[in-house]
Write a structure and sequence with these properties.
globular, Ribosomal Protein S5, domain 2, alpha+beta
Length: 273
Protein backbone atom coordinates (compact mmCIF):
# COMPACT_ATOMS: atom_id res chain seq x y z
CA UNK A 1 0.00 0.00 0.00
CA UNK A 2 1.21 3.51 -0.85
CA UNK A 3 1.57 5.86 2.10
CA UNK A 4 1.40 9.63 1.68
CA UNK A 5 3.28 11.74 4.22
CA UNK A 6 2.86 15.40 5.18
CA UNK A 7 4.69 17.64 7.65
CA UNK A 8 2.72 19.54 10.30
CA UNK A 9 4.88 22.49 11.39
CA UNK A 10 4.51 24.25 14.73
CA UNK A 11 2.38 27.40 14.39
CA UNK A 12 3.76 30.44 16.19
CA UNK A 13 1.73 33.59 16.86
CA UNK A 14 4.34 36.35 16.78
CA UNK A 15 1.50 38.69 17.69
CA UNK A 16 -2.01 37.97 18.97
CA UNK A 17 -4.33 40.95 19.41
CA UNK A 18 -7.84 40.19 20.67
CA UNK A 19 -9.95 42.89 19.04
CA UNK A 20 -13.48 41.91 20.03
CA UNK A 21 -15.99 39.20 20.76
CA UNK A 22 -19.04 38.27 18.68
CA UNK A 23 -22.49 37.69 20.12
CA UNK A 24 -22.00 33.94 19.57
CA UNK A 25 -18.96 33.99 21.86
CA UNK A 26 -16.24 33.71 19.19
CA UNK A 27 -13.30 36.05 19.74
CA UNK A 28 -12.01 38.29 16.96
CA UNK A 29 -8.26 38.15 16.44
CA UNK A 30 -5.56 40.07 14.62
CA UNK A 31 -2.41 37.97 14.46
CA UNK A 32 0.87 37.62 12.60
CA UNK A 33 1.46 33.89 12.26
CA UNK A 34 4.60 32.02 11.20
CA UNK A 35 5.62 28.37 11.10
CA UNK A 36 8.67 26.54 12.41
CA UNK A 37 10.78 23.87 10.76
CA UNK A 38 9.96 21.55 13.68
CA UNK A 39 6.66 19.72 13.95
CA UNK A 40 4.62 16.55 13.72
CA UNK A 41 4.31 14.16 10.77
CA UNK A 42 1.08 12.71 9.38
CA UNK A 43 1.12 9.52 7.28
CA UNK A 44 -1.99 8.40 5.42
CA UNK A 45 -2.65 5.03 3.76
CA UNK A 46 -5.82 3.87 2.00
CA UNK A 47 -7.76 1.39 4.10
CA UNK A 48 -11.11 -0.39 4.25
CA UNK A 49 -12.11 1.54 7.37
CA UNK A 50 -10.89 4.52 9.35
CA UNK A 51 -8.08 3.99 11.83
CA UNK A 52 -5.72 6.34 13.67
CA UNK A 53 -2.51 5.50 15.50
CA UNK A 54 -0.62 8.10 17.52
CA UNK A 55 3.11 7.60 18.13
CA UNK A 56 6.03 9.77 19.20
CA UNK A 57 7.27 11.38 22.42
CA UNK A 58 4.06 13.40 22.93
CA UNK A 59 1.55 10.70 21.93
CA UNK A 60 0.18 10.26 25.45
CA UNK A 61 -3.25 11.83 25.86
CA UNK A 62 -3.75 12.56 22.14
CA UNK A 63 -7.08 11.03 21.01
CA UNK A 64 -6.89 8.22 18.47
CA UNK A 65 -10.60 8.16 17.60
CA UNK A 66 -13.17 10.27 15.75
CA UNK A 67 -12.55 13.23 18.09
CA UNK A 68 -9.08 13.78 16.56
CA UNK A 69 -9.02 16.53 13.92
CA UNK A 70 -7.05 14.31 11.51
CA UNK A 71 -9.84 11.73 11.67
CA UNK A 72 -12.46 14.46 11.18
CA UNK A 73 -10.60 15.78 8.12
CA UNK A 74 -10.49 12.32 6.53
CA UNK A 75 -14.18 11.74 7.29
CA UNK A 76 -15.13 14.98 5.59
CA UNK A 77 -12.90 14.05 2.67
CA UNK A 78 -14.91 10.84 2.33
CA UNK A 79 -11.85 8.60 2.21
CA UNK A 80 -11.43 5.67 4.61
CA UNK A 81 -7.73 5.74 5.54
CA UNK A 82 -5.31 4.53 8.15
CA UNK A 83 -3.57 7.53 9.71
CA UNK A 84 -0.34 7.51 11.66
CA UNK A 85 0.29 10.69 13.63
CA UNK A 86 3.85 11.14 14.88
CA UNK A 87 3.62 13.67 17.73
CA UNK A 88 6.89 15.55 18.14
CA UNK A 89 5.20 18.70 19.49
CA UNK A 90 3.66 19.12 22.96
CA UNK A 91 -0.14 18.95 22.83
CA UNK A 92 -2.36 21.86 23.91
CA UNK A 93 0.72 24.07 23.94
CA UNK A 94 -0.22 27.16 21.93
CA UNK A 95 1.58 26.01 18.77
CA UNK A 96 -1.48 24.83 16.86
CA UNK A 97 -0.49 21.18 17.02
CA UNK A 98 -3.93 19.66 16.44
CA UNK A 99 -4.84 22.24 13.79
CA UNK A 100 -1.52 21.83 11.98
CA UNK A 101 -1.96 18.04 12.10
CA UNK A 102 -5.40 18.42 10.51
CA UNK A 103 -4.00 20.70 7.81
CA UNK A 104 -1.23 18.17 7.10
CA UNK A 105 -3.84 15.43 6.85
CA UNK A 106 -5.71 17.57 4.31
CA UNK A 107 -2.53 18.01 2.24
CA UNK A 108 -1.84 14.27 2.34
CA UNK A 109 -5.43 13.46 1.37
CA UNK A 110 -5.33 15.96 -1.51
CA UNK A 111 -2.13 14.38 -2.80
CA UNK A 112 -3.47 10.84 -2.38
CA UNK A 113 -6.82 11.52 -4.07
CA UNK A 114 -5.71 14.07 -6.65
CA UNK A 115 -8.68 16.19 -5.55
CA UNK A 116 -8.83 19.55 -3.75
CA UNK A 117 -10.23 19.67 -0.23
CA UNK A 118 -14.05 19.45 -0.58
CA UNK A 119 -14.89 21.58 2.48
CA UNK A 120 -13.91 24.85 4.14
CA UNK A 121 -11.10 23.98 6.59
CA UNK A 122 -12.49 26.40 9.18
CA UNK A 123 -15.18 23.83 10.03
CA UNK A 124 -12.38 21.94 11.80
CA UNK A 125 -11.29 24.92 13.89
CA UNK A 126 -10.20 28.56 13.78
CA UNK A 127 -6.49 27.78 13.31
CA UNK A 128 -6.89 25.21 10.54
CA UNK A 129 -7.17 27.70 7.61
CA UNK A 130 -3.89 29.44 8.47
CA UNK A 131 -2.26 26.04 9.06
CA UNK A 132 -3.20 25.00 5.51
CA UNK A 133 -1.05 27.95 4.33
CA UNK A 134 1.80 26.78 6.60
CA UNK A 135 3.97 29.87 6.17
CA UNK A 136 3.89 33.51 7.25
CA UNK A 137 0.39 34.97 7.14
CA UNK A 138 -1.85 37.68 8.55
CA UNK A 139 -4.84 36.07 10.29
CA UNK A 140 -7.94 38.03 11.29
CA UNK A 141 -11.53 37.57 12.37
CA UNK A 142 -12.29 34.15 13.81
CA UNK A 143 -9.53 32.69 11.65
CA UNK A 144 -11.55 33.00 8.46
CA UNK A 145 -9.36 35.75 6.95
CA UNK A 146 -5.86 34.59 6.03
CA UNK A 147 -3.49 36.65 3.89
CA UNK A 148 -0.21 34.87 3.02
CA UNK A 149 2.85 37.09 3.44
CA UNK A 150 6.56 36.93 2.72
CA UNK A 151 8.98 37.05 5.62
CA UNK A 152 12.72 36.53 5.87
CA UNK A 153 13.43 33.44 8.02
CA UNK A 154 13.97 34.20 11.71
CA UNK A 155 16.17 32.32 14.16
CA UNK A 156 14.21 31.23 17.22
CA UNK A 157 14.09 29.12 20.34
CA UNK A 158 10.80 27.51 21.40
CA UNK A 159 10.22 26.59 25.05
CA UNK A 160 7.35 24.78 26.74
CA UNK A 161 7.55 24.22 30.52
CA UNK A 162 5.11 21.31 30.40
CA UNK A 163 2.16 22.88 32.21
CA UNK A 164 -1.47 22.76 31.00
CA UNK A 165 -3.02 26.03 29.89
CA UNK A 166 -6.64 25.50 28.76
CA UNK A 167 -7.44 27.96 25.96
CA UNK A 168 -10.94 28.62 27.28
CA UNK A 169 -9.65 29.52 30.73
CA UNK A 170 -7.14 31.99 29.27
CA UNK A 171 -9.79 33.76 27.18
CA UNK A 172 -12.13 33.84 30.20
CA UNK A 173 -9.37 35.50 32.25
CA UNK A 174 -8.91 38.22 29.62
CA UNK A 175 -10.69 41.22 31.15
CA UNK A 176 -10.74 43.46 28.09
CA UNK A 177 -12.04 41.78 24.94
CA UNK A 178 -11.89 44.77 22.57
CA UNK A 179 -8.25 45.80 22.17
CA UNK A 180 -6.45 47.77 19.42
CA UNK A 181 -5.44 45.79 16.30
CA UNK A 182 -1.88 45.47 15.08
CA UNK A 183 -0.15 48.48 13.63
CA UNK A 184 0.60 48.25 9.88
CA UNK A 185 3.39 45.81 9.00
CA UNK A 186 6.59 47.64 7.93
CA UNK A 187 7.01 46.87 4.24
CA UNK A 188 10.53 48.29 4.09
CA UNK A 189 13.52 46.99 6.00
CA UNK A 190 14.88 43.59 6.92
CA UNK A 191 14.67 41.31 9.95
CA UNK A 192 15.87 43.98 12.40
CA UNK A 193 13.02 46.27 11.35
CA UNK A 194 10.58 43.38 11.72
CA UNK A 195 11.81 42.58 15.23
CA UNK A 196 11.47 46.24 16.30
CA UNK A 197 7.92 46.30 14.93
CA UNK A 198 7.07 43.03 16.67
CA UNK A 199 8.32 44.47 19.94
CA UNK A 200 5.69 47.20 19.67
CA UNK A 201 2.86 44.68 19.20
CA UNK A 202 1.31 42.31 21.76
CA UNK A 203 -0.05 38.94 22.72
CA UNK A 204 -3.15 39.92 24.67
CA UNK A 205 -3.40 36.42 26.15
CA UNK A 206 0.08 36.50 27.67
CA UNK A 207 -0.83 38.27 30.93
CA UNK A 208 -3.89 36.12 31.73
CA UNK A 209 -1.91 32.97 30.90
CA UNK A 210 0.88 34.01 33.28
CA UNK A 211 -1.75 34.66 35.97
CA UNK A 212 -2.95 31.07 35.53
CA UNK A 213 0.54 29.55 35.19
CA UNK A 214 3.27 31.84 36.61
CA UNK A 215 6.01 29.54 35.22
CA UNK A 216 5.30 31.11 31.81
CA UNK A 217 6.68 34.37 33.19
CA UNK A 218 9.80 32.53 34.33
CA UNK A 219 10.24 31.06 30.83
CA UNK A 220 9.99 34.52 29.28
CA UNK A 221 12.49 35.94 31.78
CA UNK A 222 14.98 33.15 31.08
CA UNK A 223 14.60 33.59 27.31
CA UNK A 224 15.08 37.35 27.51
CA UNK A 225 18.34 36.93 29.46
CA UNK A 226 19.97 34.74 26.81
CA UNK A 227 22.77 36.26 24.74
CA UNK A 228 21.46 37.44 21.39
CA UNK A 229 17.76 37.27 22.28
CA UNK A 230 15.96 40.18 20.60
CA UNK A 231 12.39 39.45 21.71
CA UNK A 232 10.70 36.97 24.05
CA UNK A 233 6.93 36.39 23.92
CA UNK A 234 4.30 33.71 24.47
CA UNK A 235 2.69 32.04 21.44
CA UNK A 236 -1.06 31.63 21.17
CA UNK A 237 -2.75 30.89 24.49
CA UNK A 238 0.43 29.28 25.87
CA UNK A 239 2.30 27.76 27.44
CA UNK A 240 4.89 27.67 24.64
CA UNK A 241 7.06 30.78 24.43
CA UNK A 242 9.49 31.87 21.73
CA UNK A 243 12.65 33.92 21.63
CA UNK A 244 13.86 35.59 18.45
CA UNK A 245 17.65 35.64 18.06
CA UNK A 246 20.13 37.63 16.03
CA UNK A 247 21.79 34.54 14.57
CA UNK A 248 21.45 30.78 14.20
CA UNK A 249 24.46 30.27 16.47
CA UNK A 250 22.96 32.45 19.19
CA UNK A 251 19.70 30.49 19.01
CA UNK A 252 21.49 27.14 19.21
CA UNK A 253 23.59 28.29 22.16
CA UNK A 254 20.54 29.72 23.90
CA UNK A 255 18.62 26.47 23.49
CA UNK A 256 21.55 24.49 24.91
CA UNK A 257 21.72 26.82 27.92
CA UNK A 258 18.02 26.38 28.68
CA UNK A 259 18.15 22.59 28.26
CA UNK A 260 20.97 22.41 30.79
CA UNK A 261 19.19 24.70 33.24
CA UNK A 262 15.73 23.14 32.85
CA UNK A 263 15.94 19.49 31.76
CA UNK A 264 12.19 19.09 32.31
CA UNK A 265 11.28 21.75 29.75
CA UNK A 266 10.76 21.11 26.04
CA UNK A 267 13.33 23.31 24.29
CA UNK A 268 14.26 23.48 20.61
CA UNK A 269 15.96 25.96 18.31
CA UNK A 270 14.45 26.40 14.87
CA UNK A 271 13.76 28.72 11.95
CA UNK A 272 10.48 30.59 11.57
CA UNK A 273 9.13 31.54 8.17
Amino acid sequence: MVTTEAFAPAKINLTLHVTGQRSDGYHLLDSYVVFADVGDTVRVTRAEEMALTVVGPFAEGVPSDETNLCWKAAERFGLPVAIELDKQLPAAAGVGGGSSDAAAAIRALEQMSGQPVPFDPIVLGADVPVCTVAHAAHMQGIGDYVMPLFMEPMHAVLVNPGVPVPTGAVFDALVRKANPPMEPWPEDGGPDTAVRWLGQQRNDLQAPAIALQPVIGAVLDDLAKLVGCQLARMSGSGATCFGLFESETAAANGAATLRDAHPGWWVTNCHLR
